[in-house]
Write a structure and sequence with these properties.
4 strands, Glutathione S-transferase Yfyf (Class Pi), Chain A, domain 2, Glutaredoxin, alpha+beta, four-stranded mixed beta sheet, 8 helices, single chain
Length: 216
């Protein structure tokens, strides 16, 4: 099974971390912006990452990929069956994908992707505004809902909710943006614990080295 796309994308990283938590062997094929790789284009005709292939089956979108894998490899369950727990897990996945990653993406694209990989200056005013105005309410929300240190968002074990919510924080950390431990202590402890797991930590370390190399 192949996952196409750079792990610097929170969506790609989410799939890779999910696979690691599941114990599923996934072949990672990082691609540059605008890739014309035929396998990738078949999986993702609009060039959105991640793309995915399992034999003759190909699809894109991180949540679609994960739901496919969850159905094919139900154990250990990372999407709960209990109705309320499942609904909460899907909500956190949606919150991470469409709200948290959108906010972080304004910062990461303009401060990192544009100058390092596109050879142009990003919109730093937009990045600063996102950090100043959009991010604090999201951290305030998480501070209200995250559990005590060592626990998880839904139930007593890690789920897609934790994987999805933690992934965008790796991009923020690459910009040296982390939850303030005085204002958001629960969020800081929670994010730190999830990103330190073996499913995340090796990818983040590789990304850090890649960014340092390109910034040199």
């Amino acid at each position: 099974m192949i996952v196409y796309g750079a792990s610097l994308s929170p969506y790609v990283r989410k799939v890779l971390a999910y696979g690691a938590e599941k114990g599923i062997e996934l072949e990672h094929r990082p691609l540059g912006l605008g890739s014309d790789d035929p396998g990738f284009l078949e999986a993702s005709p609009f060039r959105k990452i991640p793309g995915f292939r399992d034999g003759d089956f190909a699809i894109s979108d991180s949540s679609a990929i994960i739901h496919y894998l969850e159905a094919k490899f139900p154990n250990p369950a990372l999407i709960p069956a209990e109705p309320k727990a499942r609904a909460r897990t899907i909500w956190y996945d949606e919150f991470a994908d469409t709200i948290l990653t959108s906010c972080g993406g304004k910062m990461f694209f303009n401060r990192v992707v544009a100058p390092l990989f596109l050879g142009r200056e990003g919109d730093l005013d937009a990045a600063d505004k996102a950090e100043r105005e959009e991010l604090p309410p999201l951290l305030d929300y998480l501070e209200r809902v995250v559990p005590d240190a060592g626990n998880f968002l839904v139930g007593d074990s890690i789920t897609l909710a934790d994987i999805a919510v933690a992934s965008p924080f790796a991009n923020l950390a690459h910009m040296e943006i982390e939850p303030d431990k005085s204002r958001h202590p629960r969020t800081a402890a929670y994010v730190g614990a999830i990103l330190a797991r073996p499913s995340f930590a090796p990818w983040i370390e590789r990304e850090r080295g890649f960014l340092q190399k390109n910034a040199a």
